[in-house]
Fold this sequence. Notes:
hpI Integrase, Chain A; three-stranded antiparallel β-sheet; 5 strands; 2 domains; mainly alpha; single chain; two-stranded antiparallel ribbon
Amino acid sequence: xxxxxxxxxxxxxxxxxxxxxxxxxxxxxxxxxxxxxxxxxxxxxxxxxxxxxxxxxxxxxxxxxxxxxxxxxxxxxxxxxxxxxxxxxxxxxxxxxxxxxxxxxxxxxxxxxxxxxxxxxxxxxxxxxxxxxxxxxxxxxxxxxxxxxxxxxxxxxxxxxxxxxxxxxxxxxxxxxxxxxxxxxxxxxxxxxxxxxxxxxxxxxxxxxxxxxxxxxxxxxxxxxxxxxxxxxxxxxxxxxxxxxxxxxxxxxxxxxxxxxxxxxxxxxxxxxxxxxxxxxxxxxxxxxxxxxxxxxxxxxxxxxxxxxxxxxxxxxxxxxxxxxxxxxxxxxxxxxxxxxxxxxxxxxxxxxxxx
Length: 356
């Protein structure tokens, strides 16, 4: 990656390395330290390290690749790191800004800019969840840099993560989903594809990246199941019902007539395999045609809600959706917007008053 914007000589540090080496073993900053960090810790450069922020990012990228991190994980990290790099450049006007000069104040200023409406490069408000993800990406990077002796300490010591209140995602009603299906009733390839995609998302609760990764050879019609590459590069099985199988059959009939019929990916578009952005565009376009508001991940939440309403267990739902975090924690987010509906139905069924 080329992080340089213009040729600039790296400034030489002047901080006493012996003092910093002593501070490295200290468990807490001095009593009169700056609220985020001590003055000495603002310049946390080990004697052997003199690399720029951009160079450190390159090394970190190689490290993540070597440890077999998923491309989507690496992409998410570097979207945040690239944003931070731009912020530091605009603040310092230096391309080769030394890694050891990054202070807690720099990170705090950046996080404040992300949380404010007047984000330094975007005329829009970023969500608290976005800010929280940026914080996690930076924390992971600086912890790695400290572990590998590129800096003495992470500049994020003492800087807490931004509060990230849970924002429940509304689930689609049955009527809304049927409206989505109604605009995909055509006989052409794209209509049948979009119908099959909507049914697969709704019926399986599959993630967007998992759906895109589906291949023909891992689709098993007899058992109505498929193997997909899940989060963290973990292969997992998904299961679909008869209605989804029928939608897939209709799609496959038209797919064989496409110029991309020999593509190993299940879902194809104008130019070959369907992409993640292409899938998002399909759902948003169909939602606009149907007069409803919908996006791919919303169908995953809707699946969780419908499964629980029908009496499905939390443990089974956790397995079906490929959660690695315990179900009680995930259910604080998934289908949380409709939890009152489920609670009301449960009371009608189990309320003690009517059992007297």
